Amino acid sequence: MPSVGRFAPSPTGALHAGSLVAALASWLDVRARGPHARWLVRIEDADTERCLPGMGEYILGQLAACGLQPDAPTVWQTRRTARYQQALDRLAAEALAYPCACSRKDIDLALAARGIGHARHGERVYPGTCRHGLHGRTARAWRFATETFTHGGHPPPLRWHDRRLGAQQQDVAAEVGDFVLRRADGPWAYQLAVVVDDADQGVTDVVRGEDLCDNTARQILLQRALGMPTPAYLHTPLVRGADGHKLSKQNGAAPIDTGTPAAARAALDAAARVLGLPAASGTAESHTLADMLAGWVEPWRVLYNPGP
């Protein structure tokens, strides 16, 4: 079976230096596997309230300006809602998903009653309030029944291997709880959508930013619950600002400049250095984007050992 990789940006803003690192890494990982491997682009626009009109198309233009062309038509999540509903219906039929009436304030109050604090930007470990019914309240979301799937009690932490970070583990029931599959305001949660999309697109290798590593255990649980294969994972280094925090659209990271070939080459060269790849040789005028990209395939193969 040929290897399939993907880059899956959210159109909440233009590509910045950090997202270009993930795009370049996923592209190189596919190209290092030979001519039959495929690189896909998926626009993760399921969270329609946060997405900006026309931004998906703008991102595709940025990728094209950098020479990063997908091997198949782009997939848009907003056109796949029926598939997400099918997956949720299956989980619900197997008692692995249930409706939840809790707001964030409800969860915070329930945790506080147990003497459990909540750090800003930290994970709210769902206390299981609605696990056994809504008790007359109105559903606000759907959650994955983590303890039901792991047979309750204290199962061992879920373990997986990251090709860059090595051995990883997480006790999802204790560290996350029953996580959201569909939100109160309608959009599908990232965890469910990405699992269904990766399986339907035949993705064998996920290469993405290190900030998403914490999501992996939840996604593996969903893959197992839905009978879907688990890809191999590699989480790339993050690009950080002067304050030490990762660059993101939320903290105002500047879009990469792809307005000219020289600007695109400079952006790619900076992304390559974050990945530990050599700087492009020669002057900007002496090589094309295709030359630069091709020149990084073998160094990527040596550093990250993508296999056949």
Automatic annotation (TrEMBL):
Family affiliation: Belongs to the class-I aminoacyl-tRNA synthetase family. GluQ subfamily.
PANTHER family: GLUTAMATE--TRNA LIGASE (PTHR43311), GLUTAMYL-Q TRNA(ASP) SYNTHETASE (PTHR43311:SF1)
EC number, as in UniProt: 6.1.1.-
Pfam families hit by this protein: tRNA-synt_1c (PF00749)
Organism per entry: Variovorax ginsengisoli
Binding site for L-glutamate: R6, F7, A8, P9, S10, E44, Y190, R208
Keyword Nucleus in annotation: no
Residue ranges annotated as motif 'HIGH' region: 9-19
Lineage: Bacteria, Pseudomonadati, Pseudomonadota, Betaproteobacteria, Burkholderiales
Binding-site list for ATP: K249
Enzyme class, broadest EC rank: ligase
Gene this protein is translated from: gluQ
Protein name: Glutamyl-Q tRNA(Asp) synthetase
Keywords, comma-separated and alphabetical: Aminoacyl-tRNA synthetase, ATP-binding, Ligase, Metal-binding, Nucleotide-binding, Protein biosynthesis, Zinc
UniProt: Zn(2+) binding residues: C100, C102, Y126, C130
Essential cofactor(s): Zn(2+)
InterPro entries: Glu-Q_tRNA(Asp)_Synthase, Glu/Gln-tRNA-synth, Glu/Gln-tRNA-synth_Ib_cat-dom, GluQ/Sye, Rossmann-like_a/b/a_fold
Chain ranges of the Glutamyl/glutaminyl-tRNA synthetase class Ib catalytic domain: 6-253
Entries under Gene3D superfamilies matching the protein: HUPs
Cofactor annotation comment: Binds 1 zinc ion per subunit.
SUPFAM superfamilies assigned to the protein according to its UniProt record, in alphabetical order: Nucleotidylyl transferase
Motif ('KMSKS' region): 246-250
A GO molecular-function annotation: ligase activity
Protein task: Catalyzes the tRNA-independent activation of glutamate in presence of ATP and the subsequent transfer of glutamate onto a tRNA(Asp). Glutamate is transferred on the 2-amino-5-(4,5-dihydroxy-2-cyclopenten-1-yl) moiety of the queuosine in the wobble position of the QUC anticodon.
